[in-house]
TrEMBL record, chain A:
Keywords: ATP-binding, DNA-binding, Helicase, Hydrolase, Nucleotide-binding
Species per Swiss-Prot/TrEMBL record: Planococcus maitriensis
Name this protein carries in UniProt: DNA/RNA helicase
GO molecular function terms attached to this record: 3'-5' DNA helicase activity; ATP binding; DNA binding
PANTHER family: COMF OPERON PROTEIN 1 (PTHR30580:SF1), PRIMOSOMAL PROTEIN N (PTHR30580)
Origin: domain of life: Bacteria
Length: 442, 219
């Protein structure tokens, strides 16, 4: 395969920025291997992210082509494209690339994991979508390795997409280990350029904008919000990046009802990989917590809880509904223990602080919902302050509860919802966890 | 419609004014707007920098052949982090819609203005590459009439250090339009004042008697 073909196959790229000499690109266009399309179609749809809302596709008097052009604000961070921007696509059919690939994963699956793994392989063979519905800490990544290896042997191009960069960065070394001789690309916001053809592409969902009919198989991790996510463009990105017949495997601990209904093939795991049940959240009333914190006082029940954890030397997370409230509570928490820190989404030291909590340099972290996913700290205890706040929906609360008891050595721990009134979302989260535990026993 | 800076839903404020008179739709939310810092304290009467009556930069120009080329002027905002982000997205990511964010502020600054607004131009090649002129778009968003009197010569200041900027030779020439007696030069970002000085000098030599300046941002 030529280098330019390897790069462009399955991608949709701004012509000006294709990393090959202009003559070579032009030659490929002349031969009919490359198709050139307008950045924004005549009916106002962005060819890269498929946005067509007039709130995001904006007309302007273009000084480059002298006409009224439109540009897309949705995907502008990837380099602005407008009506007079040319995008290129490789259209020549790709030869089959089936070749044996080594398998470097030697772990064991539990019976539940193995069943799920087989069910996913089955769905892939039948070209059916599949939902892997598994609780936090069920060992989801390991379940995927065998089906992915099988697909690789058949020459399929595979994508694993997740909404957050943290997840992609965590997956990358594990995939390199499991598939030592496969070409693996890791793509996220500022990822270094990777040349050639990626057989396995690990990408944030946003990066899928840059692909078109590229993948024979897609995995969508943390698919909770599908299909009606806050950002419908991400769902479009998945559809656009997949070949028409490609099966999509959704992975979620808290899938929406619609997703559960929509997809025929299900596998469920309601037990952690070491077989322990999930910690069940407890409710504790904390009336007027906002006013008390604003007036400079940590409410006594919360203070008592924190002091208890300090005495037992257990690390803890305090989830707050807003950055503002964290700011007000922070100095008060420092009075209880100076080793309590705070983090939020834009905190550049987020990773360091989580690391310090893990090592024991910090006793606890006050956080926004940003730490609800993907962190594992042994012996962790969790409190949600204001669990009745609308930012804490069912999925968020289940994820938060899922931070606790993640190691086989200490599968228990506190999950406390401090609230100013019990909401349906709190009840739904608790009911779901009880349901998982009951199903898991059977 | 969402806020064009943070993409959160905009909640339009209802007011009697809004009911009785037409108000252009808001493009940015209040929390985002609060991040920008207006220049409020009195300062340099030429460039608007807070502090001394004549700031060190303007002092330098006064002493180096540009005495009273510019009568007076002001800048509207500090170049803080929020403004740097806005500037980057507007000028380099070419998000033209962001010109709307400061429409009200520019309109306010130039209300009752009788002098002709003259935007600092880009050179032709740059203009084609960027696909829009950032100063023109700011004025257009604010619905302020303007007239081009200048053309940019080859040299640009971007990527130059402080002394190189201040030593630049000729940046502008006249485009052939008649030069009015009173005018106000408008630019997006005032850094050392080189651009404004060069533009003003050319216009003064062509017969302008009163030249004032307005910059959206003072770095």
């Amino acid at each position: 395969m030529q280098a330019i073909e390897a790069f462009l196959t399955g991608r949709i790229w701004i012509k000006q920025f294709v990393p090959f000499p202009e003559e070579q690109v032009q030659a490929a266009i002349d031969k009919g291997h490359v198709k050139v399309v307008s950045g924004i179609s005549a009916d106002g749809e962005c060819a890269r992210c498929l946005e067509k809302s007039p709130d995001y596709v904006i007309p302007f008097q273009c000084a480059r082509c002298g006409e009224v052009c439109h540009y897309c604000r949705r995907c502008i961070k990837m380099g602005r494209i407008s009506s007079c921007t040319e995008l290129v696509l490789w259209t020549a059919p790709a030869p089959s690339k089936a070749a044996p690939r080594a398998f470097g994963w030697a772990g064991n699956l539990t019976l539940l994991q193995e069943n799920a793994s087989k069910a996913i392989s089955g769905s892939i063979r039948e070209e059916q979508d599949h939902l892997l519905y598994a609780v936090c800490g069920a060992g989801k990544t390991e379940i995927l390795f065998l089906p992915i290896h099988e697909a690789l042997q058949r020459g399929m191009r595979i994508c694993v997409a997740a909404p957050r960069t943290d997840v992609i960065l965590e997956l990358s070394p594990r995939f390199h280990q499991a598939f030592p001789d496969a070409a693996i690309h890791t793509l996220y916001g500022d990822s270094p350029e990777q040349s050639g053809y990626g057989e396995i592409v690990l990408a944030t969902t946003h990066q899928l904008y840059r692909f078109q009919e590229a993948f024979d198989l897609l995995f969508v991790d943390e698919a909770d919000a599908f299909p009606y996510s806050l950002d419908p463009s991400l769902e479009r990105a998945v559809k656009k990046a997949a070949k028409p017949s490609a099966p999509v495997i959704y992975i979620s601990a808290t899938p929406s009802k619609t997703l559960r209904k929509q997809i025929a093939g299900h596998s469920t795991i309601f037990r952690r990989y070491y077989g322990a049940p999930l910690p069940v959240p407890a409710y504790r009333a904390l009336w007027n917590y906002e006013r008390q914190i604003r007036k400079g006082k940590i409410p006594p029940p919360l203070k008592g809880w924190i002091e208890d954890k300090l005495r037992k030397k257990q690390p803890f997370l305090l989830f707050f509904p807003s950055i503002q409230l964290i700011g007000q509570a922070y100095p008060l928490l420092r009075q209880i223990d100076p080793r309590i820190e705070s983090v939020h989404a834009n905190d550049p030291q987020r990773k360091e602080k989580v690391m310090q909590l893990r090592e024991g340099t910090l006793s606890g972290l006050a956080t926004s919902t940003i730490l609800e996913r993907g962190i594992t700290i042994p012996h962790l205890q969790v409190a949600v302050i204001g669990a009745d706040h609308p930012v804490f929906d069912r999925a968020a609360l289940i994820q938060i509860a899922g931070r606790v008891g993640r190691s086989a050595k200490d599968p228990t721990g506190d999950v406390v919802f401090f609230h100013g009134g019990i909401t349906r979302q709190m009840d739904a989260a608790r009911q779901d966890i009880l349901f998982y535990n009951k199903e898991g026993e059977a | 419609m969402n806020c064009c800076l943070c993409d959160q839903t905009l909640r339009p404020k209802s007011s009697w004014r809004g009911i009785l008179l037409y108000e252009p739709p808001e493009v940015a939310c209040q929390p985002c707007r609060n991040e920008f810092a207006k220049i409020t304290r009195p300062g340099c009467k030429i460039c608007g920098k807070e502090g001394e009556m004549i700031c060190p930069d303007c002092h330098y120009w006064q002493a180096h052949g540009y005495r009273d080329v510019i009568q007076s002027g002001k800048s509207l905002f500090h170049y803080n982090d929020a403004m740097k982000d806005w500037f980057h997205q507007y000028k380099f990511l070419k998000d033209i819609l962001l010109a709307q964010v400061f429409a009200g502020d520019l309109k306010e600054a130039l209300k009752n203005e009788r002098a002709v607004a003259v935007p600092i131009p880009l050179n032709e090649e740059k203009l084609r590459e960027r696909s829009f002129s950032q100063v023109d778009q700011l004025l257009e968003a604010a619905n302020i009439p303007y007239r081009h009197l200048l053309e940019k010569c080859g040299e640009t200041l971007g990527g130059k250090n402080r002394q190189e900027r201040m030593d630049a030779q000729q940046l502008f020439r006249l485009n052939g339009e008649t030069v009015p007696k009173q005018l106000v030069l408008v630019d997006d970002l005032y850094t050392t004042g080189t651009t404004m000085r060069h533009a003003a000098k050319v216009l003064q030599e062509a017969g302008a008697e009163s030249i004032r300046i307005l910059a959206l941002i003072r770095a």
